[in-house]
Amino acid sequence: RIVILNKTLKEYSNLEAVIRLDGKVVVEGEEVGLLKGFEFIPSLSQGEKAAPILSAARKILPKEMFNEVYVAFIPGDSISNIIEASRNLKSQGFSPIPHCPARSIKDEDQLDLFLSGLAKENIKKVLAIGGSPKNKAGIFDKTMDIFETGLFEKYEFNKINIAGHPEGNPDDDNSENNLSIKCDWLMKKGFNSSIVTLSLIHI
């Protein structure tokens, strides 16, 4: 996929692109991401270089409509890859919002490394989530665990979005109460925040 996109980007200024009914964005026959409303989430495999995919997406998505781009942190991916993807998005005029999944972070030192790396790139927005319980990498069990480290205050993040689950969270039997706890914490700490949800419409 990366070889094809690199070759096409070098040789052609106009790219053939399709947005499918399920929101998948396909450029020159290669999937590059997913549209959720007016948000674009790039499709990155573990260890895959972000630049060609982001460049392809940038050519077909108008920055005026798709300013904020969420950067998914796939279980097993590296912190450096997420920082690089976010840096590339920022350099192309987007406002990146990387995922910060608690269960994918090994410990407080690794969280510090991740947040400090984002802060150095002046990326001060994140989506804080619990992450996959099947792929827990370290000491954190839930989003509040990473909030309570004090690192988001240390690096002066100005917006921390959290995930909402209108239809319930299969990984959390007490999701409504836990959402309220996170909202209370964010308000007390003075962070700007939005609750991000995914709605499915069956036609």
How many β-strand stretches? 9
The major beta sheet can be summarized as: 5 strands, parallel
Average pLDDT number: 81
What is the CA–CA distance across the termini?
Answer: 31 Å
Strand content: 15-25%
| Percent helix range | 25-40%
- Report low-confidence residues grouped into runs of 5 or more: 1-12
SS element count, helices = 7
Which outline best applies? globular
Tell me the strand order in the biggest sheet.
5-6-7-8-9
CA radius of gyration: 17 Å
Q: Which H/E pattern describes the elements?
A: HEEEEHEHEHEHHEHE
In words, what does this structure look like?
There is one protein chain. By secondary structure, this protein is an alpha/beta fold. The chain is built from seven helices and nine strands, in the order H-E-E-E-E-H-E-H-E-H-E-H-H-E-H-E. The strands form two sheets. Strands 5-6-7-8-9 form a five-stranded parallel β-sheet, covered by helices on one side. The protein has a four-stranded antiparallel β-sheet with strand order 1-2-3-4, covered by helices on one side. Strand 5 (68-71), helix 3 and strand 6 form a beta-alpha-beta unit. Helix 1 (2-11) crosses helix 2 and helix 3 (79-91) packs parallel to helix 4 (108-120). The chain is globular, with a radius of gyration of 17 Å. The two termini are 31 Å apart. The model is unreliable at 1-12 (pLDDT under 50).
